[in-house]
Amino acid sequence: MNRMRWLPRLALALILAATAAVMAVPVVLTFTNSLMTDREIGFDYGLIGQMTDAASGGKDAFVQLKIIPDWLSFGQYRQVLVQSPKFLRMFWNSAAMVAPIVAGQAAVASLAAYAFAMLRFPGRDKLFLLYLMTMLMPFQVTLVPNYMVVDALGLMNKEAAIVLPGIFGAFGVFMLRQFMSHVPRAYAEAAKIDGAGQPTIFLRIALPLAKPGLAALTVLLFVDNWNMIEQPLVFLQDSFKQPLSLYLAQINQEARGVGFAASTLYMAPMILLYSYAESYFVEGVQLSGLKA
Amino acid sequence: MSRLRIRPFGEGTAALLFLAPSAIGFSVFYLIPFALGVLESFTDRTLGGSFVGLANYKALLASGSFRKAAANTLLFTGISVPLLIVLSLLLALLLNRSLPLRKWLQSAFTLPLVVPVASVVTVWQIFFDWNGTLNEWLHRAGAERIDWMQSDWSMGVLVLLYIWKNIGYDMILFLAALQSIPKDYYETARIEGAGALRQLRHVTLVYLTPAMFFVVLISIVNSFKVFRETYLLAGDYPYDRIYMMQHYMNNLFFSLDIQKLTSAATLMVGCIVVLAAGLLAFERRFRESME
């Protein structure tokens, strides 16, 4: 496939780079606009959401997305970080829900994945298929039953209503099983001959070899849960418990003036994580693509 | 297998212990609730209602909002998934060669995947608003402005956002699959006089098929997640054309119409299981035919 001359190759790279740049626009704009004063934002974007209509006598007025602010200002950040405690509260809410989900799912799933990948037991493949099918279901499918269970356990309006189902999600089991099934059987057999029990094989062989898989899972779970919207919408009516994703949905409508800074702070951990652990992220996606 | 019986602590017991934490939580939060939901869908009220057969399903199928939501979901998935697959495959084919900036390009196309929906929603709003940037461009070009979010165009907007977010995911999967095709297959094809197009059709696309099944499946699953974009852009009751199953089900939940909701959920699960089982069966048959 490397038969192309350098000129068409350069042209192709430039076209692709232009496409990629266009795709990055929403992210870049969110960042640059976070450095505007909220007066400038009110002035520039004030017309958004209002029905002006040339036909009904109104003027043709439009809003341009602005890339470079007229005035650089950290006013939005000061507003969001210092003057309104709600933002930090919700940032913390997000973190306090996502961290236990990631850690919990990684722990529970690595145990289960070991059983699925390295042990033989009756009904194994059928049970795994059940996990796989559950993984494919949209959240709304288990909405009512989940609600009933959460209610019965007395978890309504508590963070645990989101954290516990999150921990037992099927994705981690699926991904780590893919990873562990590449551990050569001979390793486990050799350890067994040396008298190692299953816990030892799990801790000393499977887990260390699955480390990249665990890292990939961590990154993917972080990204997915940081973005959660469906679950808190249903299970957390109390707005002081809600995560940032829902807060931003409100702030964007009410106070657009600080929305960009809040959004930037909200996406920053994910972008940092991505730039730091991109290879794990890519590997995680690839692994999720191997056949069952 | 006979060793299982001799050993006091065999693989079966070990598997049980390793599986226990996951299986218990999985049952409590997913399996049992789901089974209860299926039962609910055949009764007339929540918990302890009497059996009413398919009455809930009849009511559901007769409901105008359900039909609208189901039709919109099918339409959205039917448009967005094929489009996404074609575009991401094209991208993967273009990137699967030595290019300047290749690594950087790959990262850039994957970036939207990690950006939380809620953080860029304002930019989308400003772009697609009645007074927004896109309409300004139209205006400058001398065209009438379009109410993007309050017309059938709204589905186009969602298709665009879906592709923006997911193209990197599918591209990674296709790139991995492309790199696993042995180079000598192309060599052989070339020696037999196959041009670039023939190589694409008879080598690349054939050996991509197994990966394709999974990409299709995961793209459909991801197409259901467009609820997030819809909800953040358009709220509880978006324009008719983008009122999809997830929205419908969320609203049933908040209006406490549990019977209809559980029936809708059961139907949806049925569809997904049939689809997934179909794809897996196809994949198996394909793999056997290749051997």
TrEMBL record, chain A:
Which GO cellular component terms, listed alphabetically, does the Swiss-Prot or TrEMBL entry include?
plasma membrane
Q: Which domain of life is it from?
A: Bacteria
Tell me which positions the record assigns to the signal sequence: 1-24
Please report the record's description of how this protein sits within the membrane: Multi-pass membrane protein
Q: Which keywords accompany this UniProt record? A: Cell membrane, Membrane, Signal, Transmembrane, Transmembrane helix, Transport
Q: Where in the cell is it found?
A: Cell membrane
PROSITE patterns (alphabetical): ABC_TM1 (PS50928)
What SUPFAM superfamilies does the record tag this protein with?
Answer: MetI-like
The record's Pfam families line, in alphabetical order, gives: BPD_transp_1
- State the Gene3D superfamilies in the record: MetI-like
Q: Where is the ABC transmembrane type-1 domain?
A: 91-277
GO BP annotation list: transmembrane transport
Q: What is its main location?
A: membrane
InterPro entries assigned to the protein according to its UniProt record, in alphabetical order: MetI-like, MetI-like_sf
**Transmembrane regions listed in the UniProt entry:** 91-116, 128-148, 160-180, 201-223, 257-277
**Family stated for the protein in its record:** Belongs to the binding-protein-dependent transport system permease family.
Q: What is this protein called?
A: Carbohydrate ABC transporter permease
Species for this entry = Cohnella zeiphila
UniProtKB/TrEMBL annotation, chain B:
- One Gene Ontology CC term in the entry: plasma membrane
**InterPro entries with a match to the protein in the record:** ABC_transporter_permease, MetI-like, MetI-like_sf
Q: Which residues cross the membrane?
A: 12-32, 74-95, 107-128, 205-224, 261-282
Concerning Pfam families, the annotation shows:
BPD_transp_1 (PF00528)
Does Transmembrane count among this protein's keywords? yes
Q: Where is the ABC transmembrane type-1 domain?
A: 70-281
Q: How does it sit in the membrane?
A: Multi-pass membrane protein
UniProt-annotated location(s): Cell membrane
Which keywords has UniProt assigned to this entry? Cell membrane, Membrane, Transmembrane, Transmembrane helix, Transport
Gene3D superfamilies attached to this UniProt entry:
MetI-like
Q: Name one GO biological process term.
A: transmembrane transport
Query: What PANTHER family has UniProt attached to this entry?
Result: ABC TRANSPORTER PERMEASE PROTEIN (PTHR30193), DIACETYLCHITOBIOSE UPTAKE SYSTEM PERMEASE PROTEIN NGCF (PTHR30193:SF41)
The name this protein carries in UniProt is: Sugar ABC transporter permease
Per the UniProt record, the lineage of the source organism begins with: Bacteria, Bacillati, Bacillota, Bacilli, Bacillales
